[in-house]
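Propose amino acids for all 603 sites.
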């Protein structure tokens, strides 16, 4: 990865070569399988639409749909379904996510909250035993952490609202990929290896992901015929089959009686999911968040995710600083401090708005941002954990009170970004939470269940501080997912992007946006630039590219403290170019590099 930061992080000669090769899927127009793996390049420019994801087969599935006349929503669903095959530890129909859509005809942004929900029997003591929180690791690999899946409902809600193709036809590339197989890469093997011990506690998971009792071999073909049949069933019956009927019963039985290997001795705490929970689930269409930044409109997802409010507040804090002229040290200092403040406020105020009074409008007001921005000093660092401000009653530079904690969120989510020839755009982040989710596969169905409920706070941090993220019946846990679409003054797309990474999603999106909009980086360079992530903690996480740079020492002189993180996020994005062209961009290195494709490459 890069060795320098901000404006000086660029490899134009390499990127120019990348643009001209591997920018489209195989000539067959179908998602590759087995030895016919699609090429994987991080940037592509061309016409007819674009897809960027972490996986070449998934991007190829999306482009296949675009070539067949599908729109961005259709292609997003097809890409997501394929990611459920090739990225099963990050996404799938056992999880949830957030969908942001730009409609070119009306020049408006709409969103879907497809977050998982707690059982209707859940209360604030969901993760307490004898009055004490259970160990986090125990909750992760259990039925107790599984929420009602939202991904299938998200797909159908998006298609009913804005799609042009039936679900069954959009699932065909993923169904084919699951049946015929895909080529195992180093990332897939590594993620399997990190989960091997807990996967062995569940016979169905071990049988699927540890074929023959061993780790999958890099270069081998991995098949999932059970998932192919499940996709076929959903295509034939509709997603209602997952929320009512035999598949729903299989999910409920698996959550409430996790099928643990006999003799393993593992205590997989049962959940309390019911058929009523699944039948009652709805993906929610809702208004996006909107922030004005540098004269542009920045749109994202509103609560239950904290992504839109936290990225938006941080941008508002940075609005009065000319980041284009700042030195690398000044830029990173301001970015880190804005992140620290925004996370302090999210921890106090953001939760599921169906249960909490979330002051979304006030959190995104410039008045509140200005009252918080004045805390930032050029020659000193704020102390974490920083206490929140009150967006309902902004008071300039006020500090004090109790800080709310940053809840741990699993990092292995996935993000895809799509544009079509009509100018519609989708930024969609989906997840099963932890790498490998709960580790529990629904027997005979080919997919892992989420452990999303562990995003709730297990107990209040302090009786003196209200925690909006405690569990409740049917409640959505707070998320950091931040799919974002930026529009110009004429309400036309400038860029769309997002990332996985748990709570680091917010900082990844914020840093990428400022790198692209303020620092003048090409989109692929803004994505590749080494990252810093501050989440109202005593130290800021740095990737090696910043850790090993002289900038770290200069920031430490100001008072910053750091710890290393080998990899933060894995972003993708699309950028609208003149004359109907699109640029798709993905990671150059992280997670083995991402996959950017266009329908017709511009050479």
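Proposal:
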């Amino acid at each position: 990865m890069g060795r320098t930061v901000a404006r000086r992080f660029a490899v134009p000669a390499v990127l120019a070569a990348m643009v001209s090769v591997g920018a489209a899927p195989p000539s067959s127009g179908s998602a590759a399988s087995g030895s016919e793996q699609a090429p994987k390049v991080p940037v592509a420019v061309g016409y007819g639409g674009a897809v960027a994801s972490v996986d070449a087969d998934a991007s190829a599935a999306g482009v296949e749909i675009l070539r067949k006349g599908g729109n961005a929503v259709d292609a997003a669903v097809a890409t997501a379904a394929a990611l459920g095959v090739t990225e099963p530890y990050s996404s799938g129909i056992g999880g949830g996510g957030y969908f942001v859509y730009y409609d070119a005809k009306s020049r408006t942004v709409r969103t879907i909250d497809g977050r998982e929900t707690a059982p209707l029997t859940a209360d604030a003591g969901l993760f307490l035993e004898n009055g004490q929180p259970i160990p986090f690791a125990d909750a992760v690999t259990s039925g107790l952490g599984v929420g009602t899946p939202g991904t299938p409902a998200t797909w159908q809600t998006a298609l009913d609202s804005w799609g042009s193709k039936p679900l069954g036809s959009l699932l065909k590339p993923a169904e084919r990929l699951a049946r015929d197989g895909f080529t195992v890469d180093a990332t897939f093997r590594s993620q399997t290896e990190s989960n091997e011990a807990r996967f062995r506690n569940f016979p169905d998971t071990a049988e699927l992901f540890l074929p023959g009792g061993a780790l999958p071999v890099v270069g081998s073909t991995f098949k999932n015929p059970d998932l192919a049949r499940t996709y076929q069933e959903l295509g034939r019956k509709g997603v209602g089959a997952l929320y009512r009927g035999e598949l729903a019963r299989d999910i409920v039985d698996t959550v409430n009686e996790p099928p643990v290997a006999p003799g393993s001795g593992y205590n997989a705490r049962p959940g309390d999911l019911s058929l009523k929970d699944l039948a009652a689930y709805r993906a929610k269409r809702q208004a996006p968040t909107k922030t004005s930044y540098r004269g542009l409109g920045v749109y994202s997802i509103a609560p239950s995710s904290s992504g839109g409010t936290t990225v938006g507040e941080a941008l508002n804090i940075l609005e009065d600083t000319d980041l284009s002229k700042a030195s690398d040290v000044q830029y990173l200092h301001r970015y880190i401090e804005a992140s620290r403040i925004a996370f302090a406020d999210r921890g106090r105020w953001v939760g599921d708005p169906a249960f909490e009074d979330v002051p979304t409008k006030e959190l995104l007001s410039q008045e509140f941002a200005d009252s918080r921005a004045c805390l930032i000093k050029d020659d000193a660092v704020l102390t974490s954990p920083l206490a929140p401000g009150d967006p309902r009653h902004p008071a300039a530079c006020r500090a004090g009170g109790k800080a709310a904690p940053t809840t741990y969120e699993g990092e292995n989510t996935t993000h895809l970004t799509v544009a079509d020839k009509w100018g519609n755009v989708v930024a969609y982040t989906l997840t099963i939470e932890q790498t490998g989710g709960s580790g529990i596969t629904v027997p005979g169905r080919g997919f892992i269940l989420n452990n999303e409920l562990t995003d709730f706070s297990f107990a209040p941090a302090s009786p003196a501080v209200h925690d909006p993220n405690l569990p409740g019946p049917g409640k959505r846990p707070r998320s950091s997912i931040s799919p974002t679409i930026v529009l110009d003054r004429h309400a036309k797309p400038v860029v769309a992007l997002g990332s996985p990474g748990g709570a680091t999603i917010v900082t990844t999106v914020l840093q990428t946006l400022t790198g692209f909009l303020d620092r003048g980086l090409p989109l692929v360079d803004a994505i590749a630039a080494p990252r810093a992530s501050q989440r109202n903690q005593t130290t800021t996480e740095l990737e090696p590219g910043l850790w090993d740079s002289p900038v770290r020492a200069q920031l430490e002189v100001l008072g910053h403290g750091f710890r290393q993180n080998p990899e933060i996020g894995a972003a993708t994005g699309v950028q609208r170019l003149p004359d109907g062209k699109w640029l798709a961009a993905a990671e150059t290195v992280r997670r083995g590099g991402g996959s950017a494709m266009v329908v017709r490459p511009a050479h």
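Residues 156 and 239 are 7 Å apart (CA to CA). The mean pLDDT is 93.
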